[in-house]
Amino acid sequence: METNKSKKRILVLGCTGSIGTSTLDIIRNESYKFECCGLSANSKKVELEKLSQEFGCPSTLTSADGNDGIKRLLEQTHPDIVVNGIAGSAGLIPSILTLEAGIDLALANKESVVMAGPLIFELANKNDCRILPVDSEHSAIFTLINQCGKENVESLIITASGGPFKNLAEEQLATVTVKDALKHPTWNMGVKITIDSATLGNKGLEVIEACRLFGMLSNKIQVVVHPQSIIHSLVRTRDGIVYGQFSEPDMKHPILQALDWPKTDKTFMQPFDLVGTADGKRTLTFEKPRTDVFKMLPLAFFAAEKDNCYPIAYNAANEVAVKAFMDERIKFLDIPIIVEKVLTKNNWNMPVKSVSDIFDADKYARELSTEFLGKCQL
N- or C-end of the chain: fewer Cβ atoms within 10 A? Predict the structure, then answer.
């Protein structure tokens, strides 16, 4: 395949999802420096074919070709960087394949780090490539640590919007629907991650991810609810001062940071304006998360502290429970109940030494989740 060496070549995995769509919008707007060299989607064949024609690049439908199709794309397209926007645990093997090929990985798939953090970091070091976080929170922390110096950072503060149910009483949460959970106040995201945001399970995954990405103990990480979603995360330095990153809630910002790294270039995005609202005012607020009600967050801290296979079990149980809620087989408040039962039913303290260890733990956690699911079903 003929390549244009003057542009950074980008392979977009999960191109029809929210991360993929944002990445392609960046490439359209900054085609002078970025080139889409390949695409993958799970099942949206017609949309994938249209995008493949638009960008003049090969593509693969993973529901038909699976990871073999992604491996062929990597070999065929010679990307400079891969954006992994695949949702859920299905994104793990594509991350591994990318790093095995020695290619930089712009990672939006948090499950790759939650399930296999030590293994993928080892792969990146071995093959002299980089894992660049695309989650807005971890992108912010990555930038702030680089600017402040890791040796100066004492702790991390991850912000959370609080989701659509931030102010609901526990008895009200007992009757919320999938439709209610999908009404996110500030972000436009995929279905599963939006429900995770409503339970604070997504923030829990981000806590585990931050521990592994930045080598921080869980007791050095704090979550604060920041409903405006303007400050995407903060770091506290050893002198007690807190530094934060401000931008509008648009995933194109962290994607661009990963694509441009290690440079910081001007972009087509509107510069952030502190008072750039209709009335010329902007209010930013912070509050403690209601961990007594939104129990997915303390369960994540528990899993992060225990480490080993506990994060794998947390993620697997959450995926099974969220799918059951989406299918209207369980109630919203059943999600953390199932996750807690899985985490406490078994000793997940086995070290992870291989990919097979990861999938063995994942499989068993899903089996346990399905067993507990039967006791919760409506």
Answer: C
Q: Parallel, antiparallel, or unpaired for β 153-160 and 221-225?
A: parallel
pLDDT at 1: 45
Q: Report the distance separating Cα 101 and Cα 109, nearest Å.
A: 18
**Cβ–Cβ under 8 Å, residues 122 and 106:** no
Q: Convert the pLDDT of each residue in 175-186 to its tens digit.
A: 998 898 887 666
Query: Nearest CA to 148 among 233, 251, 274?
Result: 233
Helix ranges (H only) for the chain are: 18-29, 45-55, 62-77, 92-100, 110-126, 136-148, 170-173, 178-181, 191-199, 201-214, 252-260, 296-306, 310-326, 334-345, 355-376
pLDDT tens digits along 251-299: 999 999 999 999 988 899 989 998 877 788 889 999 999 999 999 999 9
Which residues on adjacent β-strands are paired with residue 32? none
Tell me how long the chain is: 378
Distance CA 329, CA 317 (A): 15
Closest CA to 314 of 157, 181, 208, 156: 208
**pLDDT band for position 127 (50/70/90)?**
very high
Neighbours of 185 (CB within 10 A): 14
For residues 21 and 184, give the distance between their C-alpha atoms in angstroms, rounded to a whole number: 19
- Predicted model pTM: 0.92
Write the pLDDT tens digit of every residue in 278-291: 788 889 999 999 99
Ramachandran assignment for 125, one of left (phi > 0), alpha (psi -120 to 50 degrees), beta (any other): alpha
Task: State the sign of the Cα–Cα–Cα–Cα dihedral 355, 356, 361, 365.
Answer: positive
User: Cα separation of 24 and 329, whole Å?
Assistant: 36
Please, what is the end-to-end C-alpha distance for the chain in angstroms? Answer: 54
Find, among 175, 49, 52, 115, the residue nearest to 355 by Cα: 115
